[in-house]
Amino acid sequence: MNINKGKYIAGLLAATLLSAGILSGCNAEQKGSTAQVRRPPDTTDQTSTGTGGKRELTVVKDSKPPAEQGIAVQRIHRIDSANIEKWLSDQELEIQVTTLEKQATATKEAQYSYSRFRFDLETGKRLSIEEQTGAGQGEVIKSFLSPDGKYSFIQTWKNKYTAVNAIKNMATGEQHEVAVDNYMEVGGWLNNDSYVLAAGSMNGRGEIWNISVDGTREKIELQDSEVESFTQFATGNGTIYYTDAKNRMKSFTPTQSRPTLLATDVSTLSLSPDSQRIAVSTARSGGQEESRLLIYDTGGHVQGLLIGKGDLLSHQSWSPDSSRLAFAVYTEDKGGMNGIYIFDTVSGKVSPLGLSYYPVYPLSWNPSGSRLGITVDDKEKLIVTHIVDFKK
After folding, report:
1. How far from the centroid of its chain's Cα atoms is residue 267's Cα?
2. Which residues lie across from 376 on neighbouring strands?
3. Distance between CA atoms of 61 and 154, rounded to whole angstroms?
4. CB 265 within 8 A of CB 285
């Protein structure tokens, strides 16, 4: 999503972050001191104004030192005119470079060309990728690796609305084509052995398929008249999550066609890779002026306090080990939350990553979760990708 409201600062202030080392958190509760009600000791030389049995409010330091807040940044890489297509390893990634060929005129839109490269962050070397392996002219191949990495669900898009689907055994290279018509790219791995595809249709919701790693498929029934298409859809640990037309988050399984209501006023949802938490941004409804970002468990229970709020919350991205959640916030009020933030599930802290800039591509973690890619608009370079290296 491209935000054109206001003027955003498309930089991370690398020098500031590196010199600071640790970025301060923005958690609502400060752990350095707590307010406690204490009875003053019964001594003749006490200096407080409380006497006898009176109770007074005294601010006392915690007995334990506060936990370290924020995150540590080691280095920030910059890649001009490029966005991240996918990570190939912890230090190598596939990027797409955008080049302006012709400026826009009063009657014609600007013209761009696109080229792909294999890019090494450590050496800075680029290797041109002429075309995707196995793809014909005009075709686009997308692959989705199973949680254990043994299989891949592969879609070869012939055009905008038609795809050929297959399951690939990563060890042997063997592929099984799946005879399912595709209209939408909505789905995910239910577990290590099956992929759920909500194929979509020009008319209504379309079919939902449970596709096994041997290429066989079985239709999944969903009894819910309140959903015509899936705008929010996630799968994991044997369960399917989605939102209906009334912004309600629900779940069901291949053997349970009637869904379970989990939460209301849900705008977006993002299931963690370990399928234990769901990041939910709320819809701005019922007089609510701001969207909020909350963490739910898979049973629909809110975990702790809200971790973010603003006019727009988007691009939620879990680290591969589910320990961190990166997300973007835009708020018209400059005194509110703006920019990229990191939520740490262990400490419960939320830390800002920079000043007021907003991503125009999904936030992207490398396989180990030690790096985060952020792509923003840039006046001179069209787009710029910043890759943040975190200290271990």
Report:
1. 14
2. 359, 384
3. 57
4. yes
**The amino acid at 200:** G
Quote the tokens at residue 73: 């940044």
Domain ranges of the chain: 148-220
Residues with Cβ within 8 Å of 41's Cβ and at least 6 positions away in sequence, in order, are none
Do the Cβ atoms of 186 and 198 come closer than 8 Å?
Answer: yes
Q: Does residue 282 contact residue 265 with C-beta atoms inside 8 Å? A: yes
Per-residue pLDDT in tens (0 to 9) along the chain, 392 residues:
444 434 333 344 333 333 333 333 344 333 333 333 333 333 333 333 333 444 333 333 434 444 444 588 899 999 999 999 999 999 999 999 999 999 999 999 999 999 999 999 999 999 998 655 555 556 788 899 999 999 999 999 888 788 899 999 999 999 999 988 888 889 999 999 999 999 988 887 899 999 999 999 999 999 999 998 999 999 999 999 999 999 999 999 999 999 999 999 999 999 999 999 999 999 876 556 789 999 999 999 999 889 999 999 999 999 999 999 999 999 988 788 999 999 999 999 999 987 567 899 999 999 999 999 999 999 999 999 999 999 98
| Buried-state track 31-56, b at ≥16 Cβ within 10 A, e below 16 | beeeeeeeebeeeeeeeeeeeeeeee
The torsion angle over the Cα atoms of residues 102, 103, 109 and 110, rounded to 10 degrees, is 60
Token pair listed for 100:
């302006």
Q: Indicate the pTM of the whole model.
A: 0.79
Task: Name every residue whose Cβ is closer than 8 Å to that of residue 160 and which is 6 or more positions away in sequence.
Answer: none
